[in-house]
Amino acid sequence: MAHTAQVFRLEDHIAVYIIIRIPLLEAPQLPVAFAEREAHYVSRTIPLMMDQAHGELMSQTINNQNGVDVIILKYKTINAAGVSIIKYSYNVTVRNIVYQLYFIPKDQQGDSNQEEKTRFFNPTILAKR
User: Fold this and answer.
1) What are the Cα distances from residue 104, in Å, to 9, 16, 76, 119?
2) DSSP label at residue 81
């Protein structure tokens, strides 16, 4: 269960930046070992995220940064206008709060905007919480 989520959106000439903050009633119960959590993310979390996004997964990275598991996805989806677009998402859970950061490049590729994406996905922003 979750409390009311907050959504923040900003746009410039490079991309659309979205942050979703979802407070949960309690922290998720995940396996202790990172390898088991990674298997859970690959078999359950990421497929669920792709189903919800109606997306086609292009790449995924799962790692642990400063004791926090990070899931980074690149996927294709269709926007409201029916146009195929590329989205990047950076997903972390800090205690009982889920953060989903979305970088949606206006050039529809995003590879030329690596610096902006890296800056937006900077995990130190969340570490201050």
Assistant:
1) 11, 5, 10, 14
2) T
Q: How far apart are CA 65 and CA 49, in angstroms?
A: 21
Can you say how many angstroms the Cα of residue 3 is from the centroid of all Cα atoms in its chain?
19
Tokens of 128: 């201050």
Answer whether 69's CB lies under 8 Å from 61's CB.
Answer: no
Report the pLDDT averaged over residues 91-110. 87
- In angstroms, the CA 45 to CA 62 distance is 11
- Rounded to 5 degrees, φ, ψ at 5 are -80, 155
pTM, two decimals, is 0.87
Beta bridge partners of 16: 11, 104
DSSP state of 67: T
Q: Which residue has the tokens 């746009």?
A: 11
Report the alpha-carbon distance of residue 85 to residue 18 in Å, rounded.
15
Instruction: Give the CA count within 13 Å in the CB-facing half-sphere of 82.
Output: 0
48 band by pLDDT with thresholds 50, 70 and 90: very high
Give the whole-angstrom CA distance, residue 50 versus residue 45. Answer: 9
